[in-house]
Amino acid sequence: MIEEEHDDLKNEQDEPKETITRVTGMYKDWFLDYASYVILERAVPAIEDGFKPVQRRIMHSMKDLDDGRYNKVANIVGHTMQYHPHGDASIADAMVQIGQKDLLIDTQGNWGNILTGDSAAASRYIEARLSKFALDVVYSPKITEWQASYDGRRKEPVNLPVKFPLLLAQGGEGIAVGLSTKILPHNFIELIEASIKHLNGKRFKLVPDFPTAGIADFSNYNDGLRGGKVRIRARISQLDKNTLVISEIPYGTTTSSLIDSILKANDKGKIKIKRIEDNTAAEVEILVHLPSGLSPDKTIDALYAFTSCESSISPLGCIIEDNKPLFIGVSEMLRRSTDNTVQLLKQELDIKLNELEEQWHYASLERIFIENRIYRDIEEEETWEGVITAIDKGLVPHIKHLKRAVTEEDIVRLTEIRIKRISKFDIDKAQQRIEALEDQIAEVKHHLAHLIDYAIAYFTRLKKEYGDGRERKTEIRIFDDVDATKVVIRNTKLYVNRAEGFIGTSLRRDEYVCDCSDIDDIIVFTKQGTMMVTKVDTKTFVGKDIIHVAVFKKKDKRTIYNMIYRDGTRGPSYIKRFAVTGVTRDREYQMASDSKGSSVLYFSANPNGEAEVVTVLLRQSGSIKKLKWDIDFADIIIKGRSSKGNLVTKYAVKRIELKEKGVSTLKPRKIWFDDAVQRLNVDGRGELIGEFRGEDKLLIITQSGIAKTVTPEVTMHFDDDMIVLEKWIPKKPISAIYYNGEKELYYVKRFLIENEGKEEAFISEHPASQLEIISTDWKPMAEVVFAKERGKDRKDNMEVNLEEFIAIKGITALGNQLTKDKVNQINLLDPLPYEAPEEIHADELEVVDEEVISDAKQETDTSSNGEAQKDDFEIDGEGQITLF
Predict the structure, then answer these.
(1) In three state form, how does the secondary structure of 607-631 look?
(2) Distance CA 158, CA 60 (A)
(3) Structural domains in the chain (count)
(4) Which residue in 34, 125, 512, 834 is the catalytic one?
(5) The pLDDT of residue 839
(6) Are residue 628 and residue 539 in the same domain, yes or no?
(7) From its phi and psi, is residue 274 left (phi > 0), alpha (psi between -120 and 50) or beta?
(8) Residue 820 — φ and ψ, nearest 5°?
(9) Considering only Cβ atoms within 10 Å of each terminal Cβ, which end of the chain, N or C, has fewer?
(10) Is residue 703 domain-shared with residue 800, that is, in the same domain?
(11) Taking 90 as the threshold, does the pLDDT of residue 284 lie above it?
């Protein structure tokens, strides 16, 4: 109908009108063409050479222009536009990215900074030329397949004959239509070693290596396939107690974005910093200044938890092979690239062999032609055909040893030899040249017969010539997960209205509880014996008559709750001890009894399992003889939170008073050190350091001559030069032999740690001073190996008993001179036998799982339904224990 109306209007008016055209078919076809174009021609690299089309055309243009000197990037970009049908800006950006990877292009000028994110100068100001590596591995015109450029005026390579796993070395990413790719960069040397292993039929494993260095956890890398993940962290160290230094940043971030993320976390109250200094130039140096009194270790973990100091990358291995996208892992990419390199090397050898054989063929013909004076046979010939025939006849008796037939083209070439060359022809030199060619031919044939060995030698040469300075930058480490709730700064205050049953951060007129963060969980106990864990909020109702509120620590087995409660309105009283390690948030749990009128008579929360002594006072009733006695919570076994507990009395309790604060009833904690993650743990990973009580400390000694004692915490970080980490025994001496740079002599000293928790240097601060050996044995022994002096016999080695050599002195003492002779080496020997004094702790108790068993009494609970078990007991008014 629309078309009919349109025809009517056209009849009435002579002016042309638009027509309606359906685009469904065009959309279907054109979109598919567009998607294919973006995938194949723009976003995804080819497996054959590791280049996207724009990168390949840049490298081809640079080879066109290469004369050994630098070219303006603007000139290279303009030349590339002959092959690349897009704007100059996209070409210049792609070229800068290649140049920043410092592998294929030698750069000159300001090419930007991948650390700071600064962009490169305009292309008219910067220059480039091909690197020696690129000239060595990227180009080989004789084996390159060519195609017409987009306008048909020139030829460009279909793929460059790259003889190296370039795609894995540089990495690559792109977003196409319906798919994307993200291939992470890998280490140059490790790629070569993996290629050699593949050629030798051995297994290999590849993990990325980032130009920004940093620390990375590749345990979930998944060979670079979809679903994998790489966690990367900045390298953060402690400059002093109030300053942190970020010296390496995660891949994909810049110093600017990293600092912005730290400032945002500070503004949100997740971390607390004083100020940040960015001193980055050729290397990263970001100084994070902390307020006094803030833990540097905790701040380091908070930086990982709340800022870009830790990031994760999800790799996705997608490449183009035979004009089709293919999803494969990095190991398969390396195999295909290595196999392709072998084939390229074979093609080059085949071409070289053919060229050498042609040279040998012509050199042999030339010698026959001149040595046998065949050129005289053409003097009488008057036609060109006659000349060719005469030479052909003259050669026949002498060409039986040739490897192919003589062609007319060969004869024509002989006729072009000049008289001067014939007159100066040297038969011996000609024979030497032929023999040299034969040697080269034999060598090439040997390479072809042993192609894998030849390829291995090729990769080995690449490693030797170009591997210097390309060692791994990113440290491989397995990360411990940072618990955000443990490291977040307490950025708000928690209040409670105990009577009405409200907790929250907005109740400023009510009772202050503690500082907390907006991601914390809060645990609450009420007078009725109920317990609830809820997320911190501005105002939350949790139940009236609150008796305890605190920040909840998940999986906390060391915090023990001591409770005495009455079962029902007039029922008996029970005592129990329990821990709360995990609950469902916002669910109410009954810690006392379900009976109506149950009430908590006494409650305490003990962060290290302390067990106090309380006094129970009964109401006067009937024939009760004793109305007052003491109960020690240390006599009560720690059970699950749902247990009913032990019977205290069936009589009415007037009140319960705290008589004496207790000590921890928990067994000392075993602490391990996991060298892989450089962290302490209580999970049995790594090397056992010892069993620690609340007062015990760690001894840490570094190679730089610093000793200190610290309270062990699982969030601690350790310096790279740490050489001693053990449980500190205060009376155990530390023995050291060090070189005094000022006096240029070796000294021995033995000392004790004098100031707990303080870093102290025990060698001189002279730049040449250095620690030779350190020992924490009771009776250490050392061996001194003397250097041989000119004109003298070498002195015999000297054994030194350090305990007898010097008495224990102050940590700052110089010590005793070891020897005046020139020392070659000092070795630490096995110590002399010594029985160390045994540590005695009166509060040491046996722990079974979460339960503490005392030596005084063995008790069990009543069952959860309230029925008495055979080991239940009652403490009567006279303090007598009656078993039921």
Answers:
(1) CCCECCEEEEEECCCCCCCCCEEEE
(2) 11
(3) 5
(4) 125
(5) 56
(6) no
(7) alpha
(8) -95, -15
(9) N
(10) yes
(11) yes
